[in-house]
Amino acid sequence: MKKWIKGLLLGTLGLTFLVGCSSKVSEDELKENNWSIEPDEEDVPNMIASFSDHVMTLKVDVDSMESTATDEWEQMGEDFAKELASEMDFKFEYTLDGDQITLKDTENEDESNDFEVSKEDDNIIFTPADDSDEDSETIILQSRKDEED
Q1: Do the Cβ atoms of 48 and 68 come closer than 8 Å?
Q2: Residue 68 lies in a domain
Q3: Is 51 domain-assigned?
């Protein structure tokens, strides 16, 4: 009887571990929040990603841009640049198939990137499927729901 209970407990723990490690990302999870993307480069502003049916929209997070203005004229220039940046958005058509996502530029149909999608805590991670593509880098989507409250 003890062996049977011990086996049942080990089986339950093993199943719980496997289910926890194999969570796939769904379209609903992508659409659930706005996402923050922090680039590796220091002088590049953060981006905000949002998902709708088959379209990912990227916008510049102007609130993450730090001012370097030393006088009133530079401040006016920065304010103007932030206003322009806030009006810009980039659209990508996406296809989510299992743990693979393909992002296709809506303005340049020939440009597309494939990523492996995984979930780590509340973050969603896009890892380039093709290691030889030097232009493609890992993208970490961090939920913005805490920031919006």
Answers
A1: no
A2: yes
A3: yes
32 part of a folded domain: yes
pLDDT tens digit string along 82-104? Answer: 999 899 999 999 999 999 999 99
Tokens of 144: 């913005």
Give the CATH number, domain containing residue 135: 2.40.128.370
The pLDDT-based confidence of 22 (bands split at 50, 70, 90) is: very low
Token pair belonging to 25: 């990302």
Q: Which residues contact 133 (CB under 8 A, 6 or more apart)?
A: 113
Note down the domain range covering 108: 25-148
Judge whether 84 and 45 are in contact, CB under 8 Å: no
**Cα separations in angstroms, 81 against 42, 45, 84, 117:** 18, 12, 5, 33
> How many independent structural domains does the chain possess?
1
d(CA 69, CA 77): 9
- What's the predicted TM-score (pTM) here? 0.73
Strands (E) located in the chain: 35-37, 47-52, 55-60, 89-97, 100-105, 112-120, 123-128, 139-143
46 domain residue, yes or no:
yes
Distance CA 98, CA 77 (A): 45
